[in-house]
Every structure is written in C-alpha cells, then in structure tokens.
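Title: Comparing notes on inverse folding

I've been comparing how different people in this forum approach sequence design from structure. To keep things fair, I'm posting one structure and asking everyone to reply with a full sequence. Here's the target:
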C-alpha cells in the first residue's frame, strides 16, 4: 500500500475509538434541539414585525439542515425566513460551525436589498448596529468572519456607503462556541436586533 494511505499515530487512535464520533453526533443533536426551539421563538418575533415584512417571505416554512464540509468542518443551519427566487433573496441564517462560532446572518438580494437598504443604513448611521459586521465578499454564501468576508461596522471609515456594495447586502454577528450557554440568548437578541433594523 502507498505510504500516503498509512495512518499517523493520531489518526490510528481516532479510527480505533468510536466514542468521539458518538459524542459528535450527540452535540449535533443538541444543536438541532436548540435550533428547533429558536424556530418557535423566531416565528413569534416575525408575527410581531409582519406588517413591515413582505408576505411572500413569511409563507415559506423554516428549514434546519446540516453538513460536514463548510471549510472542511461540520455545520448546522436554520433559515427563517428563507426566500430565494432568482436574484431576490431574503434570508436570516442561524449558523453553528464546529470549532469556530455560532453566528447570525441577514442576506438581502435583488428587490429586497432595494426595499430595506435605506432602513438598514439609517440604523448603521445611528449606531444601533455598531457591533455587527458587513459582508464584503463577492460570494454571499460564505459565513466566516475573516477580513476577506466580513468587516466590523465600527471600523468602517465611510458608514454612509455600507449598503451600496454590490448586488446583495449581508450583515453578520458571531458568538464563540466556548460559551455554549450563551448561544441561545445570543441568537434571540440578535434576531430581534435584525428585525428592528428593517423598520
């Protein structure tokens, strides 16, 4: 057999021990549980703000799904709302990324960007979104917080031009996975803050 297929000592230890993989499955299951609970909370919040939101985005059912390969690591996502039609996008994504972060993302494209960008810009100008990040990548489906993807709003020199970048608008905020107990309140408060930025 080619040496490239031989296992390192660390790899051998893992392949002989199933318990770490079972623990991983339990953790992912707990994330699903948290996201399921958040779904009900988010629905209640959306009802409160329904008069300010397009009816069509509220008609789509939420979706929780998982994967193994976001930048080679497992993840779980909850999209609510989740409206994707051609270039018209309205999504709030709740995201767990193994070993990195919990995060919240607002993605607006097409007519929804045009509809809400002035409102969001006014909230950026008044400082109410100072702790958030703005997406700068050409790829709106990247969710990491490195400098080629997101920039902190409080560090921007020209905050009056935040919403005029490209054909989509993306805001994000992250929370460390080391603070597991703080994740739920982080998501609830962040979701409310995003909805407030749209009115």
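Reply #1:
Here's my take.
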């Amino acid at each position: 057999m080619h040496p490239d297929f031989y296992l390192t000592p660390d790899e051998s230890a893992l392949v002989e021990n199933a318990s770490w993989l079972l623990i991983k499955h339990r953790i992912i299951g707990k994330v699903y549980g948290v996201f399921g609970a958040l779904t009900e909370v988010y629905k209640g919040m959306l009802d409160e703000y329904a008069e300010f939101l397009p009816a069509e985005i509220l008609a789509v059912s939420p979706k929780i799904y998982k994967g193994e390969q976001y930048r080679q690591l497992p993840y779980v996502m909850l999209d609510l709302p989740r409206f994707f039609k051609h270039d018209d996008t309205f999504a709030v994504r709740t995201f767990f990324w193994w070993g990195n972060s919990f995060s919240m993302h607002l993605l607006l494209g097409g007519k929804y960007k045009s509809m809400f960008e002035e409102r969001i810009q006014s909230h950026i100008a008044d400082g109410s979104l100072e702790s958030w990040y703005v997406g700068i990548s050409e790829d709106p489906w990247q969710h990491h917080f490195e400098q080629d993807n997101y920039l902190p709003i409080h560090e921007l020199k020209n905050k009056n031009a935040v919403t005029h970048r490209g054909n989509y608008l993306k805001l994000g905020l992250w929370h460390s996975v080391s603070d597991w107990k703080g994740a739920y309140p982080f998501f609830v408060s962040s979701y409310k803050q995003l909805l407030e930025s749209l009115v």
